[in-house]
Write a sequence for this structure.
DNA sequence: ACGGTCATGTGACCAAGTCTCATCACTGCC
DNA sequence: GGCAGTGATGAGACTTGGTCACATGACCGT
């Protein structure tokens, strides 16, 4: 068919983001996206399992990056240190490109429950993978889950700040600050009594 | 139409759970569910916005319960204590009924990515509402998010244990134990150096 | 040239979700 | 007692997401 146009996937992604930003997600049909990318409906679904996924393609890499980053941490590192290192490895891979598409992406997702759902799922997957990598290092389950949640939380928080334009900080630096912030918050939380609130013991 | 059969919603939920458990979620169509409930397709969608939601009806209450529980905590309570109280209020409302449907529900969801997505979304909403309620009390954002995440995590963890049959502990007791466990894990996490891992400072 | 593979186009099909209109029971009012 | 209003339902058409089987044409190695 025609000449072998490279980057069919990329063309679909760009077409989708453009159309979603112009007309909204719900008012854009898959045939429309395919048409703008000079492709057909069927080809779209060959590249993405469903319409939502076109906006989340590439996040799969993040999971691997985070998990590998945890695994690559020195043996002596504490869980939080391992998370910090992995976060650094992950955020270092982000390009100005992604910073440009970011705002439009966030806007579309924020305005579409269907996409928020997918985003929540991706985020949960990221946290689960990170927690698994930490458990692999011998970190007990509860601590692994908590540290993973802190890491993922820091990542998204830093991503938001990275997108807000006038910052002159790098993404890795923002991520580190966010993680430190959460670490300090955790310290403040546990400084109180461990469990003296209301509630009755089991009979 | 016919006599005014009460509990159309409930009949739909039970029919859906039964059919999903029998044939799987993907192999069950909405008309099938409606038929078993002696209703029609259109009526199903009048009661639930989509096919997935039939399994999550009722979780809306949990959000309100958790948030109200946080708000009702005494002024002097620490964030974690407030969460503990709210968790107690929430888990106290669970009935043996829900413990019966639980396992089938979990199984169906675990085997269906589409439903895991919805579950992740609901969970995120729960955490967000809890965090908002904590912020309302003056808890700083980072701490609120972290404490909320601990609470929600403890809730789901306790729910899983509550469903595993041979336990003789009440749901509130399990929740409290789960929260204590996470609290201890957090204390262990922050006992290390705050942020001495790899990674370069911002230029 | 020839056969294989890979990306794509084509068209049919199913099920989810939306919408409009008709129907019937119950309620309250005259 | 009859009559309009309300609310839940049924019926059926329609759009769209998602799947599938099959055909086509370009590239590659022999």
């Amino acid at each position: 068919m025609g000449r072998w146009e490279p980057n069919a996937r990329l063309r679909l992604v760009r077409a989708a983001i453009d159309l979603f930003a112009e007309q909204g997600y719900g008012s854009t049909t898959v045939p429309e996206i395919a048409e703008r990318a000079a492709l057909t409906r069927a080809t779209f679904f060959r590249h993405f399992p469903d319409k939502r996924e076109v906006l989340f393609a590439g996040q799969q890499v993040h999971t691997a990056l985070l998990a590998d980053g945890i695994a690559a941490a020195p043996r002596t590192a504490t869980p939080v240190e391992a998370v910090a290192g992995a976060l650094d490895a992950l955020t270092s891979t982000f390009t100005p490109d992604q910073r440009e598409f970011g705002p439009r992406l966030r806007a579309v997702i924020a305005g579409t429950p269907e996409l928020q759902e997918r985003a929540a799922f991706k985020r949960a997957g990221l946290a689960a993978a990170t927690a698994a990598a930490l458990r692999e290092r011998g970190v007990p389950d509860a601590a692994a889950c908590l540290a993973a949640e802190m890491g993922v939380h820091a990542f998204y928080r830093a991503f938001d700040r990275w997108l807000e334009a006038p910052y002159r900080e790098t993404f890795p630096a923002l991520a580190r600050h966010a993680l430190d912030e959460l670490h300090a918050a955790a310290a403040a939380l546990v400084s109180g009594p461990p469990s003296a609130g209301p509630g009755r013991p089991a009979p």
